Amino acid sequence: MKKDVRSGKIVWGRLFYNNKFAIAFSVFLSVVLWMVLVSNDTQDRPHAIPNVPIKVVLSDTAQADGMKVFSQTDTSATVYVKGNSLVVNQLKSSDLVAVASLPSNITSAGSYILSLEVQSNSQDVSPGQYTFSSVSPSQIMVSVDKYREKTFKIQSDTSISYKAGYQSDPAYFVGVPTLSSDTVTISGPERQVAQVNRVALSNYEVNDTLRETKKFTSTLVLYDANGNKIDQNGLTVNPEKVDVTIPVMPRQTLTLNTTFTNKPAGLVLASGQIQVSPGSIEVAGPKDILAGMNGKFNMDPIDFSSVSPTHNTFDINITLPTTCKNLSNLPTAKVTLNLGDVVAKQMTASSFTVKNLSADQTAIVQTDRLPVTVVGPADEVEKLTGSNLVGAADMTGKENFTGQTEVPATFTVSNSSSCWVYGSYMVNVSVAKKGG
After folding, report:
1. Do residues 66 and 146 lie in contact, with contact meaning Cβ atoms separated by under 8 Å?
2. Architecture in CATH of 342-433
3. Partner of 427 for a Cys bridge, out of 13, 117, 335, 367, CB 3.0 to 4.6 A?
4. Which residues does the chain have with pLDDT short of 50?
5. Residue range 219-235, pLDDT digits in tens
6. What is the DSSP letter of 2?
7. Which ranges in 322-419 belong to alpha helices (H)?
8. Nearest to 286 by CA among 172, 168, 167
9. Where are the domains positioned within the chain?
10. How far is CA 238 from CA 47, 183, 194, 218, 232, in A?
């Protein structure tokens, strides 16, 4: 190796004048060129193309029978190709496809081993310029079955438990758990779906005394007919999870209060004249709702047109707000009215008006005389005549009607603050357009 005497540096250009170095360099360069040529020789040495997609093809018979592929061991393969280097080196995984065909004689559900056959998938590269040497893997296992879906009601009663020795607070009511979805749909291979017998929440234990609503999210568990858990692999569970709410509300005893409609303003009923059975119920509900009730609850009203000396007992609905629960489980209460010395008298009404009529219409009550029953204190009833009765024909629901029709009529009693008309009545009305 030559050095510049003045600088002491190696002069590389002079090395090639050294015969031994020139021979060694030539041999090294030949080896490198040989390796490059060999590595690019795809005529004899296969070129590997990875990530070639695998396509499973069902026979026409299997497809007509509703069969589908639900799983396969591999979704891509490595294909080894020989041929023209310029062509082979341009091939991409998308230019090829490995096909696994299900034989036409297979029509039943099961798992099958299928061989892979590589096919060209390119429009740009001629398949005649290369050949397929091999494919890895050469076989795959596929699972085929019919598609099925089934809907189940989600069970929660056996999944939620309370720790040993749990003590509830008697001032609160713990309700039945509610779910964000009451049902779940299981879909997938028919054989697997058929194994599902019921669906329940994952087991959940309540540890602390509940004094407010409890919320949590639970996964769903599938069980077979023998109570064994089922692996969800291969199945689609929709929804996979549900939100669970255990309602917790304060409880309170409310006195039942009787209300009325069409009650004469001057008629006073003392507390001893109204008997309610039961007199109270136990209710659970939100704190603000219970506070607003002030210890009592107004039942559905009694229409005084249905009250008479001989008809004075009623079964009244107890209609609580939707956010409350009737812990007494009594939907109605029996109300008895002690009316004292009231009497009933038959009288004839001959004066009528019309209400709830459209502004562009006119109406005439064709009924000119109608027998009605008047109820009230004896001394007031005796003073009344038919002229004290005024009936109002109610056109509600028939505001745009024209012609002859029958509508309900309500009555007021003049010159008396404690009398009312008992019963329901209908009158005939003739309706016409103004200017018609």
Report:
1. yes
2. Beta Complex (2.170)
3. 367
4. 1-2, 5, 34, 36-39
5. 999 999 999 999 999 89
6. -
7. 378-381
8. 172
9. 47-147, 156-246, 250-337, 342-433
10. 45, 9, 16, 13, 12
